[in-house]
Amino acid sequence: MPSSRIRPLENPVTFTLDGEELEAERGEPLAAALIAAGKTTIARSPKFHRPRGPACMRGACDGCLARVDDAPNVMTCLVPAEEGSAVVTQNRLGPRDTDLLRMTDWFFPEGMNHHELFAGVPGIQTIMQGFARRVAGLGKLPLEAAAPRPAARRSADVVVVGAGPAGMAVAVRLARASRAVEVLDDQLTPGGGVTALAREDAAAFEPIRAAFSAGVASGAIRLRSRTTAGAVYGRDLLVAGEEGAEIVEARALVLACGAHDGALAFEGNDMPNVMSARAAGWLLSRGVLVGARIAVVVTGGGGPFGESFARAARQRAEVTVLHGEPLSIRGSSRVKGVRVRTATSEREVDADAVLVDAARSPAFELCQQAGAALVHEPRGFVVKADDGRIADGIWATGEVCGLPFDPHALEAHAALVATQIAS
Ligand code: FES
């Protein structure tokens, strides 16, 4: 049994996966409960039906997509487990773990353009179109059409996008300056990358977290979790949340969007139980261990999540940390090992889970829409704004500006931004 829970459930609920009853901690992401139950193959790639599992635990891959309570293509890493939740895997023929449509991967090892398969051949073309729809589709439509929900328009004083350490730090300072601060975050809980660190590593960020929690508890900061800032149009911010969509014009908008996990191209990188070290650390902090024999690959520019995970997990699992470049995963639908090129040699280690800690790329997208200047670096596009100001009334701060994931650097830049806004 590769994955497991390391502490008992405090508030268990029962949900189902394809009709099978499973337990979860109330409110934890459904994907976390599935991993804890050893159900790591959740989705299938749309065309070749390769098995996919949660890789990011933050709504940034497609490994956890499933039908939940009759809604298709739900990212189960962003949905809290409730009593009676019904999760159904999609786009498979036959059992979830085998999926007979996987044959397309074996029959077309060089790839296949399903749009042209037998196109123009009378009769066969129609049959093949039906087959292609079955093979390449993703989910089925909901049983009922959702009622339209018009977007509301409103104004706000300060809106901060992102409740990672940078967003928390700037929100705290602006709340202390008596500004009405609203923080939007698309995750279930605030904290960003801090929540993926071992306790001793997270301690350095504790003053920021404590001040933010106090601000939220007192009402000085309004935190809206599970709320996505989708786009910036001039001074308008498109926001999507549980209640629907809205367009918010803030007197000051701060984009603290953080960074994406580093994604590397190597053979087998999409296999279930190959995931970012940050995601595995996040799961561990919630009591879910992703394997019994875990390889952590830290590449140049990576950190701190791989080493931090190893520190936290070593008492409970066999953890090997390798500094180098992952070359390939051994296994066809289940991880059996990883081959890594280190500074001196190539090594292969046995593992039932492989964690990758690569250089993270700034989540620059909203900043670019707002008009930010970008510089391209090996890790990705970085917002170029020394004082954080990227447009009239819009600022950026944190890793999106290329700052290191370091509490002092993040605090200092947040202070610079907050001073400009408050003055
Ligand atoms: S999108 Fe859910 S694990 Fe990546």
Description:
About 20% of the residues lie in helices and about 30% in strands. The chain contains 10 helices and 27 strands. Strands 9, 10, 11, 12, 13, 14, 26 and 27 form an 8-stranded mixed beta sheet that branches. Helix 8 links the parallel strand 18 and strand 19. Helix 4 packs across helix 6 and helix 4 runs parallel beside helix 10. The structure holds FE2/S2 (inorganic) cluster (FES). The site of FE2/S2 (inorganic) cluster has 12 residues, from loops. FE2/S2 (inorganic) cluster binds next to loops.
Helical fraction equals: 10-25%
Helical segment tally?
Answer: 10
CATH superfamily of the largest domain: FAD/NAD(P)-binding domain
CATH structural class of the largest domain: Alpha Beta
Q: Tell me, rounded to a whole number, the average pLDDT.
A: 93
Radius of gyration: 22 Å
Estimate the strand proportion: 25-35%
CA(first)-CA(last) distance? 57 Å
Q: Low-confidence stretches at least 5 residues in length (pLDDT < 50)?
A: none
Main sheet properties: 8 strands, mixed
Counted beta strands: 27
The distinct bound ligands, ions and cofactors come out as: FE2/S2 (inorganic) cluster
CATH architecture term of the largest domain? 3-Layer(bba) Sandwich
Class derived from helix and strand content = alpha/beta
CATH topology of the largest domain: FAD/NAD(P)-binding domain
